[in-house]
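Re: beginner question about structure tokens

> Can someone show what the tokenized structure looks like for a real chain? I only ever see the sequence side.

Sure, here's an example I had lying around. Input first:
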Amino acid sequence: MLRWGILLALVVLALDQATKFLIVALIDQSYAGNLDIREITPFFNIWHVRNSGIAFSLGNFNDGGRYFIGILAFVVAGVLIFLGSKTHKRVVIAAYALIAGGAVGNAMDRLNPLRQTVVDFLDFHIGTAHWPSFNVADSAIVLGVALILIDMMFLSGDREIKASE
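And the corresponding structure tokens:
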């Protein structure tokens, strides 16, 4: 992982921070009474909202909580880089890199004194039913977890069966 895995994590981090920079610069922050929504398709909007919680806006962390979550994300990323350096399975290395890059991207928002919250902007919906808003980092984390699950459910078992034959 110390080569292409770290590069993948850095690409995720760069894309996440670049998109958040553009959203903050170009779209007013939305809150009750001020909605700056850009309709892209009938089921997808871009807007600028802030998330002080964790996944799907769960919780609302004060300064101590945001520092804890932010620092924890860096620790998790470090552990994933270490674990990735111990495996040769490309799908697992990619998964760890996606999760690490996404975790650091959101942590940088939390620890940034000008933001203090995570910038979310992707809004998928059906009519008035909206999925919680998310960002590139969140997408990378979900994709990374999906790859780990795919490896655990479909790829690891095949190797164990072949090894025991």
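Each token stands for a local structural state, so reading them left to right follows the chain. The CA atoms of residues 151 and 158 lie 10 Å apart.
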